[in-house]
Amino acid sequence: MSNSVEIPFSTTLLVRDTCLCLHAQRAARALARLFDDALRPAGLTNGQFSLMMSLNRPEPPPMGPVASLLAMDQTTLTAALKPLQRKGWVMVMENPKDRRRRLLVLTGEGKAVLARALPIWKETHAMLDGRLPDGGSARLRQELLAVSGMAVETPKSAASLRRPRHSGRAMGE
Amino acid sequence: MSNSVEIPFSTTLLVRDTCLCLHAQRAARALARLFDDALRPAGLTNGQFSLMMSLNRPEPPPMGPVASLLAMDQTTLTAALKPLQRKGWVMVMENPKDRRRRLLVLTGEGKAVLARALPIWKETHAMLDGRLPDGGSARLRQELLAVSGMAVETPKSAASLRRPRHSGRAMGE
DNA sequence: ACTAAATACATTGATATCAATAGAAATGAG
DNA sequence: CTCATTTCTATTGATATCAATGTATTTAGT
Fold it and tell me: Buried b / exposed e across B84-96, counting CB within 10 Å, b at 16+?
């Protein structure tokens, strides 16, 4: 049937070398491994560290804004909280003001774990920073931010209409 | 016990704003959603597209180099191939020259699916490109590449000794 | 107050991701 | 040639990720 549909090898090389999505996935995986390895003695993964750190606020946040901040699906956040709850590092409580909402609360033990992980993060990040070309760190950060923000709103893509999640900003300055 | 270990909110904001790992995960998730949405009519995810495209070579590659190219664990590749095999888009064959190795072969139907996905990728990527500041695309690509390559080799990290995977380059120019 | 719509979160099912481990085959030292 | 080592892949278990869907609660329109 659909046989002999040949795609030129040059096209493969083009995609490999230019696809921003592929480059982002590669970099994300590599950085995840780097931080996972470093944080392992603290008992955290990079994602757990980011999540728990984002819960360290004066007022415990609900789930929606945290999911937006991390640019992840709300259902992913629900799942990601499970192991942290089991370990007693995070509590998911009802908000009496609006019983649909939850309050994500870092426990004392959760804060202690996070405090132990913090110097590892600093060290690892400083090391990473030092290896990037001068100013590369800031540039890269800014461009990644632009990409995340951009992909959130896709006027052309009907997907944002079909699935109006991922609204954007969160956690006020 | 380990109570009242307070981490200042300013530290949380610092991590949120500067952590390259977090920024990379955010951008990777956002881009994955963008391309997943776009490629959905073709029946592929962004990862499946990248993987299958990387198999479109004159000679079918073994698993190791493909995993390195995608900067993913070899076990992840094994798992990622399963659904593609079920759909009949990829065949995993033994290499008679070295029976430890596998040859990853794109089937005719696989090539057809990939060919249908290609214009979607082009369109989506052009749209993305257009929204980035001038030259931002190339700069971002280069920096992501630097990060992926860097995180692969971590002389300081004993992890690379304990777990000598992810060797680096693959798929010759 | 009543009801339709919107909001916030949870559940299910499928895939992605990696650490730890195991297995099979090839390689090298003697 | 033999055996220990190395290389290449698969399996298992845990978590991460999202689409589709469901449920409870609040809000808005009347």
Answer: beeeebbbeeeee
For residue range B20-75, list pLDDT tens digits in order. Answer: 999 999 999 999 999 999 999 999 999 999 999 999 999 999 999 999 999 999 99
Helix (H, G, I), strand (E, B), or coil: what is residue A170? coil
CATH of domain A45-132: 1.10.10.10
Q: Which run of H or of E encompasses B145?
A: helix B136-152
| CATH fold label, B44-152 | Arc Repressor Mutant, subunit A (1.10.10)
Nearby residues of B92 by Cβ (< 8 Å), 6 or more positions away: B81, B85, B102, B103, B104, B105
pLDDT digits (tens, 9 = 90+) for B133-166: 888 899 999 999 999 876 554 332 333 333 444 4
Interacting residues of B27 by C-beta distance below 8 A, sequence separation 6+: A24, A28, A71, A144, A145, A147, A148, A151
Per-residue confidence (pLDDT) for residue B2, from 0 to 100: 47
Q: How far is CA B2 from CA A55, A85, B5, B6, B125, in A?
A: 18, 17, 7, 10, 49
Q: What's the whole-number mean pLDDT along residues A30-53?
A: 97
- The gap between B101 CA and D2 C1' (Å) is 24
Q: How far is CA A147 from the centre of its chain?
A: 13
**Domain ranges within chain A, ordered by starting residue:** 45-132
Q: What is the pTM of this model?
A: 0.87
For chain B, positions 55-114, list CB contacts with chain A under 8 A: 56-58, 69-72, 108-109, 111-112, 114
